[in-house]
Amino acid sequence: MATSRAEGDHLVERTIKEVLRAVQRSKEGIEEGIARLNEALEKKKKEISDFEAKYKIRIRKEQGEEKDDSARKEGTAQGVLVGPAGGSG
């Protein structure tokens, strides 16, 4: 069995086996890309966390947000309090 698709001005016919192989390769490439992006995201999260710890930065939560980590970040050391941009001062 064959399938057809247009490439530019031409109609190209490929077998299901060829299409399946191409789809599998595309799927693998997408999965690898997702894995690389997740690794980069985790690395960036760690960099941000290290930066916050180094400079004693505390992020102020918006009203209504969970305050799970407030006990972890509370302490006797003074630091910088950062709030949302453009807030009414």
UniProtKB/TrEMBL annotation:
GO terms for molecular function: unfolded protein binding. Keywords: Chaperone, Coiled coil. One of its GO terms (cellular component) is prefoldin complex. Residues 20-54 form a coiled coil. Residues 61-75 have a biased composition (Basic and acidic residues). Residues 61-89 are annotated as: Disordered. Gene3D superfamilies: 1.10.287.370. SUPFAM superfamilies: Prefoldin. GO terms for biological process: protein folding; response to cold. InterPro entries: PFD2, PFD_beta-like, Prefoldin. Belongs to the prefoldin subunit beta family. PANTHER family: PREFOLDIN SUBUNIT 2. This is Uncharacterized protein. It comes from Malus baccata.
